[in-house]
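Listing S7. Sequence submitted for prediction.
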Amino acid sequence: MTKILMVCLGNICRSPLAEGILRSKLPKHSFTIDSAGTAAYHIGSSPDRRSVAIARKYGLDISNLMGRQFGVSDFDRFDLIYAMDNSNFQNVVKLARDENDLAKVKLILNEVYPNQNHDVPDPYYGGDQGFQNVYQMLDEACDIIAEKVTR
């Protein structure tokens, strides 16, 4: 079974949305998809209502997800770790113990724009359009991820 982790700052906007999108594209019996935040701001919290709403608009239910913080043990539990932006990428790689850990960590938009290191913008302080834009970015990246991991 392949295990994939999505990581953002608080684990209430981007990463739970990415988790829900990728889950919808992969067979449950072969993949485990989870999400986490690099900060402890929202441990145990549900996703932001705007992330839940945009997911629902596309037929996904992420309302039952719970925020949690990324930890070193996640390197042992997951095969691939996708960071939503450069800041969270750096926060994750700082915890890496070795080259094997480092090799698991990727920027999610590098799947769409290889080696360009673009960030998925944090929509938390923006309006609903920001969540729509983030959904579109993540959906495109998750299409590519799903294709790669099912080859």
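Caption to Listing S7: primary sequence and predicted structure tokens for the chain studied. Strands lie at 2-8, 31-37, 80-83, 105-107. The two ends are 14 Å apart (CA to CA).
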